[in-house]
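#lab-general

N.A. 3:47 PM
ok so I finally got the sequence cleaned up, no stray characters, all 435 residues accounted for. can someone with queue access submit it? mine expired

B.Y. 3:52 PM
send it over

N.A. 3:53 PM
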Amino acid sequence: MRWWTAAIETSNLAWPTEETTVIYNGQQFLLRPETDDLLPSVSIHCPNNIPQEEAQLSINRFLSALCWTKKGGVHVQFWSGSGGINPVNVGKSKVKFVCDKLSTDYLPEPGNEKSNRALAIYREAMSVNTIPYKFLAFFKVINIIYDKGPNQRVWINKNVNRVKDFQAVKRLEEIKKTVTDLGEYLYKSGRCAVAHAFDHPTVDPDIPAETLRLKKDLPVIQELATILIESELGITTESTFRREHLYELQGFAELIGPEKVKKIKAAEPIDEDLVALFPKISVRLREHEPFVAYECMIVKYVKQNGSTLSLVLESQDGFCMLELQLNFSNWRLLFDSEKWVRIKEDNDKSVVPIRYCIDQIKFLQGHLTNGQVEVYDSSTNKLLARTDPLIPCNINLRASIKHLDKLIENYEQVIIERQKATHEASILNQKEDDR
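B.Y. 4:20 PM
back already:
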């Protein structure tokens, strides 16, 4: 004998808080309650020669009858089989999708009703927890542009070669072994089979083989819905947004102007002085406090080298200088936080340059640990440019960070010594004045 168990999620359906046995259609079903660690479940005890699909169908038929009677909903989260005297416990998943901080670098703002509707339907498709209706919701995205079945089938066949998702490509290869018209297959055996219930083809949600087929087809229709939203409605995906990395120089491009940017990209020399175009600039690291040395810096001069502009920045007290490179041919912001920074010594031996040295080292530490450089207009705090996270190569990161920590300790000791020397000099000067 073998147990087959469905871990379930209920909606507006009361589930027993004690183990309950129910006889339905000549079979015995064991209902077990939800606990802090376990999901609610329903199990059936079958002879070993009963196929898995047949056992699952029996449980599905029982749940469908129960939902009809009690006017509630049940969704099977997953299936489990086991031997032994009792069915296996089905634990709650410990996996949760969380993040320290939500990255919202890119959120589309469509600005028209049709595009907003497409994103709404896409959200519904991503959120619905039944496979047939998830498939149908993704197919509805195509229906936003193409209202008739023949047009939908034609569009699918024209665009199916643009599918890149690994699972979708793998599934398409399987389908092509028996199907010549992919648009016809996805329309009739997918969209119509779910939307219609009168005649074949149709999908019976209780039959495991039918929902399994749709589950395999889901990556294909989801990828096609994504392609339509991006290509037909012009809503960029996050992967395209990051691949094009327009954010790296967009703010600087706006300051310089489209005509000059076009010339720079073509490596045509710009005769005029560009310094006046730039405001005071702050160079920061994402999710780090500002570094005093790199705040409100003045653009001292701008040098063009082919399609790259080099901006030399200087702190207002003149102790810190750094270089940013704007590579317009590749649309990249470049900054070497170790080599492109210079701190001047103070003849009066003040602590300011030493504090700037500490800022440089702390910036370098943050940069090496996947830091993202951000460049702001200091007066408006508008983000002008930012890089992708740095991925350091060919270094011992742990040893490097430890070495930099030691340098910071040394600089902090220098500050103490200089402050002590300044204090002692002040006392001597005061004694001289008293004489």
